[in-house]
């Protein structure tokens, strides 16, 4: 494709992109296709001859789009958002064009230096001590795995990296019974073993009970285990519960255990001074992760990973084969030594665009709007006696269920809520997901899409009530 042809196609696609952003609400939020519909429409092998862009783009519209769940539709209230924003998309276009592989400083100095600066902006913005260093990773899962590996190497004095697990076993990782599956996955990959991930029980608000953590660690030490790492969650995926960081930090400090903080979603909200209190105790932690690709309007993937002592991280991951040696080694950061992959995308550009476009003021305004909308919905749910909050609202996440007073059987209520979720999502007007809290089937509504406004939440709440009543009505007729 020559530059003129590229220009023509790119203009067409930019037009399409702007139209999409303008009309994204007209698409069903959750893709309505049946399994294999898309697969069966795609040719079974590489085409023999090159095809025209017009044909490819036509298929994009006709084959690809129906299989899209529209995460950028403001009525997307499922999981946690994976937001974009116009400045982020523009930066991604430029990044794709430059096609940089920023593994080392020399392979594109700006990819390293802008990343260093962006991690400082975020570090200072969310209240991480200024002696910490940050690096962009592809996912919170990868950052958590890095934390466990780094903890392992610090504890074994880098012997596992050298000699394998010889004589170094009985490691333990601690997290609450609410923490994300990535902790268990990380522990499995790091050789700790799933059975050595000890899940500490939680209180009514589903926060880790630090007293029980303390007891468990003492018992383990007595039995000859090596407590390796504690993972505290600031904002669990199920209900956005906040583990008591300061109390956990004191335990970690007392026993010299690596403390990793998983704030994958909620981390963005620490840009708000009113939530800074939750970060109390951060100086006792060793690492911290949050995803700008969730609630900070930056395209997936972009994970911010911070460590207190970058030397431990570098000692764990750095490699220097002859073909990677450069003259600037030692003078600059070579981020390939700060994590697992060698090759690295130029991800800091989109962060720079986003933070400059919105400014601190703009970011805070959006985050506060989302939290205010959740507060509004919380009050509405309180007012309607057929609905209840299953746990109190935390930030912008509402966990609730339909609970018509005439139905008392818990299983029947669970079934109704499951049906309610299915009906709502099948309508395509909004998208919610669920979790289970102590056996209660709970609807989760995360209000945080970049463009969500009061009208979307009002409409969603209206629809939820209407569909719930219809389901209850049909039950009665049965
Ligand atoms: C989303 C999430 C993760 C996983 O994030 P990835 O970047 O997809 O790996 C981990 N922990 C929490 C609390 C999350 O919300």
Q: Could you describe the 3D structure shown?
A:
The protein is α/β, with parallel strands linked by helices and 478 residues long. The protein folds into two domains: 16-31 and 68-84 and 359-478, Aspartate Aminotransferase, domain 1, CATH 3.90.1150; 100-345, Type I PLP-dependent aspartate aminotransferase-like (Major domain) (Aspartate Aminotransferase, domain 2, 3-Layer(aba) Sandwich). The protein is built from 14 helices and eleven strands. It is globular and about 65 Å long. It binds pyridoxal-5'-phosphate.
Concise overview:
With 478 residues, the protein is an alpha/beta fold. It has 2 domains: 153 residues, Aspartate Aminotransferase, domain 1, CATH 3.90.1150; 246 residues, 3-Layer(aba) Sandwich (Aspartate Aminotransferase, domain 2), CATH 3.40.640.10. It contains 14 helices and 11 strands.
List keywords for this structure.
478 residues, alpha/beta, Aspartate Aminotransferase, domain 1, Aspartate Aminotransferase, domain 2, 2 domains, 7-stranded mixed sheet, 4-stranded antiparallel sheet, 44% helix, binds pyridoxal-5'-phosphate, transaminase activity
């Amino acid at each position: 494709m020559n530059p003129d042809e590229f220009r023509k196609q790119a203009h067409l696609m930019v037009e399409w992109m702007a139209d999409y952003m303008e009309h994204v609400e007209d698409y069903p939020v959750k893709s309505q296709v049946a399994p294999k519909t898309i697969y069966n429409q795609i040719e079974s092998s590489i085409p023999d001859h090159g095809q025209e862009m017009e044909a490819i783009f036509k298929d994009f519209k006709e084959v690809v789009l129906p299989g899209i769940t529209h995460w950028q539709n403001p009525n997307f209230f499922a999981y946690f958002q994976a937001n974009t924003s116009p400045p982020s998309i523009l930066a991604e276009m430029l990044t794709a064009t430059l096609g940089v592989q920023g593994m080392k400083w020399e392979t594109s100095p700006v990819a390293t230096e802008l990343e260093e600066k962006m991690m400082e902006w975020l570090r200072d913005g969310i209240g991480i001590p200024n002696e910490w260093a940050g690096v962009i990773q592809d996912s919170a899962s990868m950052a958590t795995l890095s934390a466990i590996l780094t903890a392992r190497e610090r504890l074994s004095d880098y012997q596992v990296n050298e000699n394998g697990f010889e004589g170094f076993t009985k490691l333990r990782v601690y997290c609450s019974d609410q923490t994300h599956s990535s902790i268990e996955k990380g522990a499995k990959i790091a050789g700790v073993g799933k059975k050595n991930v000890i899940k500490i029980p939680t209180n009514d608000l589903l926060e880790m009970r630090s007293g029980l953590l303390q007891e468990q660690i003492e018992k383990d030490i007595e039995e000859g285990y090596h407590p390796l790492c504690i993972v505290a969650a600031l904002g669990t995926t199920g209900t956005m519960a906040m583990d008591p960081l300061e109390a956990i930090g004191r335990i970690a400090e007392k026993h010299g255990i690596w403390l990793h903080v998983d704030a994958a979603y909620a981390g963005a909200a620490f840009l708000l001074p009113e939530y800074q209190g939750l970060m109390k105790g951060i100086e006792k932690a060793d690492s911290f992760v949050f995803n700008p690709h969730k609630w900070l309007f930056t395209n997936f993937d972009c994970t911010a990973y911070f460590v207190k002592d970058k030397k431990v991280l570098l000692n764990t991951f750095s490699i220097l084969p002859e073909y990677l040696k450069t003259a600037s080694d030692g003078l600059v950061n070579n981020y390939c030594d700060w994590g697992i992959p060698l090759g690295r995308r130029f991800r800091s550009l989109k962060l720079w665009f986003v933070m400059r476009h919105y400014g601190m003021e703009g970011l805070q305004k959006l985050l506060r709007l989302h939290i205010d909308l959740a507060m509004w919905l919380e009050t509405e749910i309180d007012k309607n006696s057929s609905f209840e909050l299953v746990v109190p609202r935390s930030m912008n996440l509402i966990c609730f269920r339909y609970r018509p007073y005439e139905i008392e059987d818990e299983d029947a209520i669970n079934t109704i809520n499951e049906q309610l979720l299915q009906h709502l999502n099948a309508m395509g007007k909004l998208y919610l997901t669920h979790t289970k809290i102590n056996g209660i089937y709970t609807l989760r509504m995360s209000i945080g899409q970049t463009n969500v406004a009061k009208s979307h939440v009002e409409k969603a709440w209206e629809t939820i009530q209407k569909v719930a009543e219809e389901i209850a009505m049909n039950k009665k007729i049965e």
